[in-house]
Amino acid sequence: MLSAARYSSTTVVVGSGLAGLTTTLQLLKKGVRVVLVEKTDTLGGNSIKASSGINGVPTRHQHNGDTVGAFYEDTLRAGKGLCNHDLVWELASRSQWAHNWLASQNIDLSRVALLGGHSYARTHRGAGRMPPGVAIVLALCKQLQSYPSSQLQVMKQSRVALLVVHDGAVTGVAVERSHERVELVDVHSVVLATGGYGADAQLLGEHRPDLVDFPLTNGCQTTGDGHKLAVRDAGAKLVQMDQVQVHPTGFVDVADTNNSWKFLCGEVVRGVGAILVSPETGLRFVNELDTRDAVTEALLAHCRSRTAVILASASDYLQAQAHMDFYMLKGLVHRGTVADLVRLLTQQGLACADEATFTATIENYAKCVATATDPLGRTQFGSSDFSGEYYYGLVTPVVHFSMGGVAIDTQGRVLRENGSAVPNLYAAGEVSGGVHGGNRLGGSSLLECVVFGKIVSESIVRLAKAS
Ligand SMILES: Cc1cc2nc3c(=O)[nH]c(=O)nc-3n(C[C@H](O)[C@H](O)[C@H](O)COP(=O)(O)OP(=O)(O)OC[C@H]3O[C@@H](n4cnc5c(N)ncnc54)[C@H](O)[C@@H]3O)c2cc1C
Q: Where is the FAD-dependent oxidoreductase 2 FAD-binding domain (predicted)?
């Protein structure tokens, strides 16, 4: 059944992850009517899964001399020359605002960690047990409830299947839900906040066929809908679609090794001190806090069967206890001795070094920590106390994040091949491309959602005032 409804002066936000939620709330605050369309039955997308935190510089929880300039430079360096400098500047320079806004929503982000590729600790999470993605999404969803239905309509289990375009300008969307197809026409603007394409065999096969058989952390809804809609219906340009982040540490669940979906071992675990060890050599093989692409490359080179051991001391465990306890509950992290670790590896049929080699590796690393010198180049360490039992699990590289995406400018407008903006069409969050270039820094995706959600809302309000 097809029905059409006029939605003049209304913005349609497609996708309810952090980018969609931020855009929606910022627009509502300015008095704009919003229809938020989400194809699954819950709000939050992949954003709700975020476990390490969100970057911000400088914030009142940092006391380390970090600057916007340092964050900007780190992002460009990690992106291997492929970042759009203007977009990165927006990301870094507005990060303090992002934190202040989240704090104003009563979200605790008081714990700060150093993640790979960052020159300062700047990735924030809460002090409690709730992972940052859950804490942020739940708080923002609660805010949505304070708006009347005359200003906000939330459509769940509703998939945007088409952008309605007239004379090159986006004027509406077609939404499919259960057995009906609804056209929202005459809208003011449309915001694509549909996330990445890590779970889409077609886009991945086209742009990164080498990754099609990798496991992934993304939910099955991560199918690049916004990318496809923007290109097919609005003639938008896609950039750097071959830039897909493979995160080095997806957990191998020893009770379910063949499942292609993996739980992420948050980077914060390495951030507080955990090391990576090759099962077959029993040796460390990389600076665990190098960028994700470098750690992944080293893991693939040093670990046959693409599996490494991640191991934390009892002292380091305490620094990430909420994460570790959760992983233990899920059977992904185990507590035990080196003998227990070797037994686990053997049970898994992995080629495995002997106990003495693993023990020597741990002792050598404890000396590195004590002297703050590491032949592999690590400069930030956890505790040097490696006595007692360890906390360990098995990890493997996983498809995690789409760096490439829909081309946007610094106002969040979607761009065509010729560089012109598609009237009334915006994009924010993982659907857009160019911010992270060849490698995203941990904690920068949540930040991108908040910063560019805000930017897009500003552009829409500006346009509304002008017209
Ligand atoms: C396990 C995991 C841990 C992570 N940890 C961190 C972290 O600690 N820090 C960090 O910065 N980043 C982290 N990330 C990355 C980050 O969570 C995401 O990249 C980011 O949140 C993307 O947000 P988004 O709003 O752009 O998209 P999403 O949160 O993915 O939301 C997109 C939404 O759009 C909906 N949608 C898609 N197509 C349609 C359609 N056609 N119609 C209607 N709705 C549609 C989807 O169903 C989804 O709900 C993590 C990612 C994962 C998977």
A: 11-446
Give the atom of ligand 1 at the shortest distance from the alpha carbon of 218: 53
Instruction: State how beta strands 432-433 and 405-407 pair.
Output: parallel
Task: Find the DSSP H helices in 123-236.
Answer: 132-144, 201-207, 225-234
- Catalytic annotation present for 400: no
Give the start-end residues of each E strand in 286-350.
308-313, 334-336
Task: Walk across the sheet containing 123-125 and list its strands.
Answer: 54-55, 123-125, 111-113
Domains of the chain: 2-242+403-466 (3.50.50.60), 247-399 (3.90.700.10)
ipTM metric: 0.99
Closest residue by Cα to atom 17, ligand 1, is 47
C-alpha 293 – ligand 1 centre gap (Å) = 20
Question: Ligand 1 in contact with 445 (CB < 6 A)?
Answer: yes
Q: What is the pLDDT of residues 74-131, one digit of tens each?
A: 999 999 999 999 999 999 999 999 999 999 999 999 999 999 899 999 999 999 889 9
Those residues with Cβ within 8 angstroms of residue 36's Cβ, 6 or more apart along the chain or in another chain: 13, 16, 20, 24, 144, 152, 153, 154, 155
